[in-house]
Amino acid sequence: MDLVALQEIRWLGNDTLEKKNCAIFYSCNPVRHVLGIGFYVSSRFLPNILLFEPVSDRLCWIRVRGKFRNYSIINVHAPTEDKDDERKDKFYLELEIIYSRCPKHDIKMVLGDFKSKVGREENNHPFAGRNGLHEESNENGYKLVQFAATTDMIIGGTIFTHKNIHKAT
Q1: For the whole model, what pTM was predicted?
Q2: In the chain, what are the helix, strand and coil shares in percent, each to the nearest 5?
Q3: What is the DSSP string of 61-120?
Q4: DSSP letter, residue 168
Q5: How far is residue 15's CA from residue 11's CA, in Å, rounded to a whole number?
Q6: Residue 48, pLDDT above cutoff 90
Q7: What's the CA gap between 53 and 86, in Å, rounded?
């Protein structure tokens, strides 16, 4: 694999760790070994990296040169369902700000762990498909659908038909 989004790295600070066969771009808590996200990039793919921007221990993004268009890939690790609404709202506000800063003509992808259950409710369409694992969304699922609606994106894990065993992470 040439590019992998990582969650729960649990390192300190923001940096790039370069090894012989890869580089790891990371954005972690500056003082505690908690959370932390980043990207693994193979050395073969490294020349295609245009930009890496650490935002917090829950958000970072990378810009990749493509053949016809560039890609802006945002990596997320959302707060869990039991966290307070203020923390969740702050996370989604930061995510929307980062999304809006991505170049307009880039292909945009948001990857990571949203800690959400997106149900098959009719009001989730057309931003979520009918092939999700869950019947009903949880609060984080509704926030994810709202983000998808705001940014005109699609929640890809709910679009394609798969066996239930392949829908869970």
Answers
A1: 0.86
A2: 25, 30, 45
A3: EEEE--SSS-EEEEEEEPPPTTS-HHHHHHHHHHHHHHHHHS-TTSEEEEEEE-------
A4: -
A5: 10
A6: yes
A7: 24
